Amino acid sequence: MTAVLAIAGTGLRRFLRDRSNYFFVFVFPLLLVVLIGLQFGGEGGESRAIVVGGSDLADQVATGLEDGGATVSRGGSVEDAQETIARGRADAAVVVTEADDAAFGAGEPVELDVVAGSSTQALAARQVVSVELGRVGNDQRGVLSLEAAGIPPDEALAAFDTVAAVGPTVARSTVGDDSLDEAFAGLGQFDLGAAQQVSLFVFLASLAGAASLIQSRQLGVTRRELAGPVTTTQVVAGEALGRFVVAFTQGAYIVAGTAVLFGVDWGDPVATGAVLVAFCAVSASVAMVFGSLLDSVNVASGVGVGVGLVVAALGGSMLPLELFPDNLLTVSAVTPHHWAYEAYAEITRRGGGVGDVLPQLGVLALMTAILLPLGAWLLRRSLARAL
Amino acid sequence: MAAVLACEGLVRRFGDLAAVDDVSFTIAAGETYGLLGPNGAGKTTTISMVAGLLDPDVGVARVLGDPIGPAAVDVKRHIGLVPQELAIYPDLTGRENLAFFGRLQGMRKPDLEARVDEVLEVIGLVDRAGDLAKEYSGGMKRRLNIGIGLLHQPSLLVLDEPTVGVDPQSRNAILESVEALSGEGMAVLYTTHYMEEAERLCDRIAIIDHGRLQAEGTRDELLRLTGEVDRIDLVGSGDLGAAADALRGLSGVERVAHDGHTVTLTVHDAPTLVAPVVSTAVAARMSLADVEVSRPDLESVFLHLTGRALRD
User: Fold this and answer.
1) Do B139 and B214 lie in a common domain?
2) Which of B53, B77, B90 sits opposite A226 (nearest CB)?
3) Are residues A240 and A163 in the same domain?
4) Do A374 and A254 share a structural domain?
């Protein structure tokens, strides 16, 4: 056991000593959490909408949105609205042209352009705009119905306003699994990005660690280890544990760092810890496979980063899984990131505990059960070659 | 004296190639045993079997009476391997490297720390113990490489070409260290293709070529095998092959070998043959830069036994 711990401990020591790792291990992940938080995150406050156009219809939409609690700004061009949304200063915009206004007044069907941002807050704003446009349409249909019944337009409008002010109302409440705003409910601004980045960087750090496995063979250190009173099994176990410790260190740093610096709520610490451990085990196993199959440190580093990023993107570490089309979501399920993402979502958004993420933990454990023996077998084979 | 290492009929094949073919020798405590041979002669494969990294296809190597092999974990505690490559972590300090390999040997604090300090003293790295190994000179890295092999005070120290690529000053320091170790009772197996190192360090020397031991004995015993012949080295350029062919026809010339810039002859009574040898080489269009005459040495022995120069 001493030999196993010595090999694993030295792996961690070498990982932490590599200054080129500092930025990518300690700084970059937190930067990305901030970036994604600003781009996609939302605090759950009021929606910020822009109404482009100066017609009666635009006035009605703006007033309705304000009555619904949104902050509304007016005027400007469509391009101005797009830029404002891209900069994260608004969540959605409604474009009302003169032609739209004329058609609306004539009782013809109208299709308004809505521009929405990519943040979770924008998803909610889009819903608010959609509801408001529906309300305006219903009002207009009511007024036109009264006019068709022979009531003069002014009286029809006054009568409809009176009914709208005192009549019964139906409150809207979103239900159902397919609601995006429900899926992201309960998330703080940086919570989503933190959960995504912990998987991305744990996996990347593990694959980067695969290079040190190759280096040990190339330097002849592995050969020297085996010349001592150490079995091949101990060397393999030490290297596997070393990869795991590196992965866990990276993961624990991001979890702790985002909790302290950005107030990210990771939910049940036992459940989050269990998911992190399970994901680190898969990552370490993949690193063993990489470090045993490849013979070049440079190739391993390059391939590791490439594969790490692709798998992360596929697994929801760059774009939320909720925005994936169904077929891509199915493919995504082959990545460990997918299952970690689902597990973190259960824990951080819906207050889940260990029992609630058992299916995801089971899949991650199954992946480890396949990949770890494969990595160990490949490492044994590469050690034999090195002798 | 009981043998610390006893190799009996070691054979190791890689496909059709017999890298080591029926090699037997013993080393006693306090004895330094040299394996002298050119690159590819089978030295490292022999060492890999002695260090328990490879199983022999045939034969057995015993350390203190116990068979050694990859599965003989406890027997390996008696062996200190100093491999030819610098098997150290460049991104750890000298002290950390020693401590790491010490833990693999099962050493624990505080004994480990005390022993690390002792070894740092022996290899002369006390002042640089806290520096990363990648900041060491080539000679310092070599000394650290040796220090790791000494750390657990093995009964048998196996050094595989430990002075390759080392400056003369560091090389001398390494040789002095090895001399001191055998003086302390450690059995040392030393492989090299530097004749002068074998002559200086080794109590007994085995000459190995093409995987087979060609001869074994003390330096004087090996020299007697040559029939007390002298050696003439002709250094120069031109058609060295033609010069070698021409020199083979000279009376008194026993063997001739050549490489890219040197023709080496073993001869009887070199002083009387120098003049005809030089004129024959010149006549064969060899442009001479230097002529060196030497008394019998291990280079001559190797040439005598194998028909090749040691540096081939």
Assistant:
1) yes
2) B53
3) no
4) yes
Q: Give CA–CA dist B156/B50, Å, rounded.
A: 10
Distance in Å, alpha carbon of B96 to nearest chain A alpha carbon: 9
Q: Which domain holds residue A123?
A: 48-184
- The verdict on A309 touching B (C-beta cutoff 8 Å) is no
Across the interface, of A7, A228, A232, the residue whose CB is closest to B105 is A228
Structure token digits, residue B224: 């007697």
Is residue A224 within 8 angstroms of chain B, CB to CB? yes
Instruction: Note whether A158 and A180 are same-domain residues.
Output: yes
Question: Do residue B87 and residue A223 have CB atoms under 8 angstroms apart?
Answer: yes
B238 domain residue, yes or no = yes
**Domain identity same for B140 and B155:** yes
The mean pLDDT value for B139-151 works out to: 91
**CA-based nearest distance A10→chain B, Å:** 7
B90, closest residue in chain A (CA to CA): A219
**Domain boundary, last residue among A140, A169, A184:** A184
Q: Tell me the per-residue pLDDT of B189-234, one tens digit each, with 9 for 90 and over.
A: 998 888 888 888 899 999 998 899 988 999 888 887 777 678 899 9
Interface test with B, best of A224, A230, A234, A385 (most B CBs within 10 A): A224
**Is residue B310 one of the residues assigned to a domain?**
no
Total domains present in chain A:
2
Q: Residue A13: its chain B contacts at CB < 8 A?
A: 92, 96
Question: Does A102 share its domain with A235?
Answer: no
Contact check, Cβ <8 Å, B70/A229? no
Task: Read off the pLDDT band of A24 (50, 70, 90).
Answer: confident
Last residue of a domain, one of B193, B223, B253: B223
CATH of the domain at B244: 3.30.70.260
C-beta atoms of A227 and B77 within 8 A: no
Task: Provide, as residue numbers in chain B, all residues whose Cβ is less than 8 Å from the Cβ of A3.
Answer: 103-104, 106
Residues 6+ apart with CB under 8 A from B215: B206, B207, B222, B225, B301, B305
ipTM at complex level? 0.78
What is the rounded distance in angstroms from the CA atom of residue A360 to the CA atom of residue A276?
11
Residue B263 lies in a domain: yes
> Which member of A3, A14, A387 has the closest CB to residue B104?
A3
Binned at pLDDT 50, 70 and 90, residue A84 comes out as confident
Concatenating the DSSP letter of every residue in B72-94 gives -TTGGGGEEEE-SS--S-TTSBH
* Site of tokens 């909610």: A124
For residue B135, which amino acid is it?
A: E
Q: Under 8 Å CB-to-CB from B68, ≥6 apart: which residues?
A: B49, B50, B51, B52, B61, B62, B75, B76, B79
Chain B touched by A380 (CB under 8 Å): no
Please state whether beta strands A48-52 and A71-74 pair in parallel, antiparallel, or not at all (unpaired). parallel
Helix (H, G, I), strand (E, B) or coil at A360: helix
Contact with chain A for residue B96, Cβ under 8 A: yes
DSSP B245-279: HHHHTSTTEEEEEE-SSEEEEEESSHHHHHHHHHH
> 122-181 in B: which are within 8 Å (CB) of A?
148
Q: Domain total for chain B?
A: 2
Share of chain A above pLDDT 70, in %: 88
Joined tokens for residue B155: 């009964």
- In a mutagenesis test of the B interface, which of A14, A20, A225, A226 is the best target, namely the one with the most B β-carbons within 10 Å? A226
What is the rounded average pLDDT of the residues B77-87? 91
In chain A, which among 15-34 make CB contacts under 8 A with chain B?
Answer: 17-18
Domain that holds residue B73: 3-223
CB–CB of A238/A6 below 8 Å? yes
B9 and B126 share one domain: yes
